[in-house]
Pirin family protein
Amino acid sequence: MSNPVIQTIPLGFPWQIQDPFLFAVYHLDHYPKGNGEMGPEPELLKGRNMGSDFDPTLKWRMYHGTTIPGFPYHPHRGFETITIVNKGFCDHSDSLGAAGRFGEGDVQWMTAGLGVQHSEMFPLLHDETDNPLELFQIWLNLPKANKFVEPHFKMLWHEDIPVIKEGNAQIKVIAGNYKDTLALSPAPDSWAANPKNDVAIWNILVEADTEYTLPKSNSEVTRTLYFYEGSEIFIGDRKVNSKFGIVVNPAEDITIKIGAEKAHFLLLQGKPIAEPVAKYGPFVMNTEEEIQQAMDEYRLTQFGGWPWPYPDNVHEKDRGRFALYPDGSLVEKES
């Protein structure tokens, strides 16, 4: 039998990925109590590199925020962002006029397409207790044929996302099918929208001192299992510690023995797009000329401008989970 483990890679910031994915990052921040205005107390910000606070030695970071943690408005073109918020909340605002607050297991799927600006802020909603945040952001490429589609904003609410209990494992099926369980539909122009591309995003939790068998896929996909929390696992006679990505053979069922702590994984899988990739910051195209065009168009149009009062826009503190779509339709959920 062939070795199912092709390669192991340490999990840095961001994670190392494979086509059709472009970028993946894991945020785990133990944010303190809020100051009443959805940020930390001002004295806690002393000594930080405000506006560029990514220090991995700290319990929590402000990222590009200066008063509220997060990422004030910035542009994207040519790919999709998939934001999974397991703990805490994210406030979204964009140049289409769309907005939302999502968290506690919700997923936002945004197709940037021909161009959009958005902000992603992490409001500290609780003033009497801490505000932990656990979030993944994944960039999924768009093929050349879809680079200039109209931007699209979609919410996958946690109440609707399939979660499978299989023995001692729990599998949250964000994209792709897990055996006979179908995920919710992705954004319509996504590479994931065609079942032939076999895109899968699964968040997997397995209890300690048990086994889990990852079911095989087709041999044309890239497949990486990110072991982001736990102690150690064993695949055959191969020991893998946590904080490692595991590139595996997609054509084999893979039995994983879990060590002394429960194990958390994120699986990213998909058929490669296999087209040239030109990247510059928030723009992902096929050629350097297209990158220059994106920069020129952004300078001229701001991708529709910014209809919100602040670059780091957040919503009312007592607002629950909601999504306001560009057509004005509103969905509100219980928190």
